[in-house]
Design goal:
Blueprint lengths: L2 E5 L2 E5 L7 E5 L3 E3 L2 E6 L12 E7 L5 E2 L3 E6 L2 E11 L4 E11 L37 E3 L2 E2 L3 E6 L12 E7 L5 E2 L3 E6 L2 E11 L4 E10 L18 E3 L3 E2 L5 E5 L10 E4 L5 E4 L5 E4 L7 E3 L8 E2 L4 E2 L3 E6 L4 E6 L5 H9 L13 H4 L4 E6 L6 E6 L21 E7 L4 E6 L3 E4 L6 E5 L3 E6 L5 E6 L5 E4 L5 E4 L4 E4 L8 H10 L23 E6 L5 E5 L3 E6 L2 E7 L8 E6 L6 E5 L4 E5 L2 E5 L1 H4 L7 E6 L8 E5 L8 E5 L3
Length: 649
């Protein structure tokens, strides 16, 4: 029988040996509404009988839920009970609950009467319309709402209205219905086959809420709109079978070595120091010969943000080792950091006034150059402020702030560059100091439905997880919508010449129905997760929803690698420099190695419970002449977070 016990700020359902143990923790459980809470169930454990945690369900207690094992949620005023359930592969379950109390007055409205700080940057409030008399009026529209899977849908809640009593919409939450949630008032999402119910909730400044739902049918009989429907992915070669890998040559460094409970990536510098991105827990280093990590946070000099209440740390979500004892670190910016500069500083009459009170939002995130001290316990930090100052960009004389969340960092010794892949595009950094040029992107114009029944233009550019240098110093770049070769070294290391060139040579890896200006139903977003460039200029491209592709100048070959993950959700790639084999990481199940057309599969038999988390990153240790492949497992769903290092053949 399971027993419910309280442990500090967490409640644990301890099922002992008869099933898994559920643990739910939170960074805070009380505060002024709207209250942002990070809930974490990833320290839950399977029973010690060889089973594993197969599924998670996090119910926030206010009608919203996710199938992730963790989640960020904004609570309105009230007392809420979050409920977290884990189920193992033997169908045994355990549940933990946690009470969250949101109290107090809401934040004041921003100077221009729009959305409050912590809500959306440019949507959700409106002048005109007929707002409700007792609270906000919520409207959720989508286009298309049915069509063949995978179905790209644009969901829009920006027509929602506040009540006519001086209140404003303070918080938006858009639950796509399949475990993905955003705090924006709109969003584009690709649905797998099935019937899904999207749920959109707004909360006003008086803590009143309203919710609208919309059913999305993917794989049904609808045509997906008048423009022909969502394009079908091109035919793919299925790679299955292969040889089981063994545990020989593998070594693990996880929490027992003092490492973080969530891992985003790992990399080594030229001196052989192993650096690990530990998210909210900071930056970790394992020096050669050591068995225990050393942890660095904002207290040690990492860059944080100051919101007026003090300096706060930022999640470390990407790392790339550089010269000896040097690492380049990417941070996750605050919610809506990309649009905050325009929202707070540009007024309705077109005038500009710098809003220093909210400057911390768009200055959050970005990157650091970190140099390890001689004893391995101190660091020196130089910050990369990934922006353009006033007067630097002719078309934007007030300055430019776009990139803030840095999903990928890559150091390239050939071109002497540090490349930053972010939320809006890429930027170049000087590896020796904080010199910087921003930004470029292989963007296209898209169309979204508007209130008049037609379409409005939007710029499609996001999530540049794909960065892979070529031997000549050029760079492959891949994002959510388009990819391309950034011919930086080939074009005399002129960033802006390379920018002009990539605009003319964009690659749509998994093609949309049209090459430019697609509507939501004409899009098949690539959602590149990683890239691995080949010396011949070709590139391997991974995508969580779409699998694996190999682009060459003469065409693209598509693959579904199902030997590890039956859904072929590719999360990470790395080309082995010693034999040219391709290491492939998956959302679930482990990794595979593709060599000479043959697969070697490394799963739970090698990695234990680590394999049930996401293979977040694969990199090569280039500090020595022998093979060392670094595989970062995230620690999702109670799996073992850490870095597995392979030094075999």
């Amino acid at each position: 029988m399971a027993v419910l016990v309280r442990v500090g700020a967490a409640e644990v359902m301890d099922s002992t040996a008869s099933g898994p143990s559920a643990v739910l923790t939170a960074n805070t459980t009380s505060g002024a509404a709207p209250l942002s809470v990070s809930l974490n169930g990833t320290t839950s454990k399977p029973a010690p009988d060889g089973s594993w945690i197969a599924a998670c369900l996090l119910d926030y207690g206010d009608g919203s839920s996710t199938t992730n094992c963790w989640g960020d949620h904004i609570y309105t005023a009230g007392t809420w009970t979050a409920r977290f359930t884990v189920t193992d592969n033997l169908k045994r379950s355990a549940t933990a609950t946690l009470t969250v109390t949101a109290t107090g007055a809401p934040p004041p409205p921003p100077p221009d009467g729009g959305t409050s700080d912590g809500g959306t940057s440019d949507g959700g409030t409106s002048d005109g319309g007929t707002p409700g008399s007792t609270g906000p009026s919520v409207i959720l529209t989508g286009s298309p709402t049915q069509g063949p899977a995978p179905l790209a849908v644009y969901l829009d809640g920006t027509k929602s209205k506040p009540a006519a009593d001086g209140s404003w919409i303070a918080v938006c939450q858009l639950d796509f219905g399949d475990g993905t949630i955003t705090n924006n008032c709109w969003g584009s999402h690709t649905y797998a086959a099935g019937s899904w119910t999207a749920r959109f909730t707004i909360t006003d400044s008086k803590q009143r809420t309203a919710t609208a739902t919309l059913v999305i049918n993917a794989g049904g009989t609808g045509g997906g709109g008048t423009d022909g429907g969502t394009p079908t992915p091109p035919p793919a070669i299925v790679l299955n079978g292969g040889t089981p890998g063994t545990s020989a040559g593998w070594q693990f460094f996880g929490t027992a070595a003092g490492g973080p409970t969530r891992v985003y990536g790992a990399s080594t510098d030229a001196a052989g120091n192993l650096w690990v991105a530990g998210g909210d827990q900071g930056l970790y280093v394992l020096t050669p010969g050591s068995t225990q990590y050393h942890r660095f946070t904002v207290a040690d000099g990492l860059t944080g943000y100051d919101d007026g209440t003090g300096v706060h740390g930022q999640p470390v979500i990407s790392v790339s080792g550089g010269p000896a004892n040097t690492v380049y670190v990417g941070y996750q910016g605050l919610t809506n950091c990309e649009g905050a500069f325009e929202y707070y500083c540009f007024k309705s009459d077109g005038s500009f006034q710098l809003d220093t009170a909210h400057q911390y939002i768009w200055k959050s995130g970005d990157a650091d150059r970190v140099v390890l001290g001689g004893a391995g316990s101190t660091i020196t930090v130089n910050h990369y402020d990934i922006s353009s100052p006033p007067g630097a960009v002719a078309a934007e004389p007030q300055g430019r702030e776009r990139l803030c969340t840095i999903m990928r960092v890559t150091y390239d010794s050939v071109s002497q560059s540090v490349w930053f892949g972010g939320n809006h595009g890429i930027a170049w950094g000087n590896p020796d100091n904080n010199g910087l040029i921003e930004h470029s992107h292989p963007a296209i114009n898209g169309l979204k439905p508007n209130s008049s029944g037609g379409y409005s233009y939007i710029l499609l550019t996001d999530a540049y997880y794909g960065l892979s240098p070529l031997p000549n110093g050029d760079l492959w770049v891949g994002g959510a919508n388009r990819s391309g070769k950034f011919r930086y070294s080939s074009l005399s290391k002129n960033f802006w010449t390379a920018d002009s060139d990539i605009q003319k040579n964009k690659v749509d890896v998994w093609p949309d129905a049209v090459p430019d200006e697609p509507t939501p139903s004409q899009r098949l977003d690539d959602n590149v997760s990683d890239m691995a460039a080949e010396p011949d200029g070709s590139v391997w491209i991974g995508s969580i929803p779409l699998g694996l592709a190999h682009w060459t100048p003469t065409g693209t070959q598509y693959y579904r690698v199902t030997s590890i993950d039956p859904n072929s959700k590719v999360t990470s790639l790395e080309r082995d420099p010693l034999d040219g084999s391709l290491w492939i990481g998956f959302m679930y199940g482990g990794i595979a190695r593709l060599k000479d057309g043959q697969l070697t599969n490394f799963g739970p038999a090698v990695f234990g419970s680590s394999a049930y988390g996401r293979a977040a990153d694969i990199q090569t240790d280039r500090s020595g002449a022998t093979r060392r492949i670094l595989v970062s497992f995230s620690g999702d769903g109670g799996s073992a977070a850490g870095v597995w290092i392979y030094s075999g053949n």
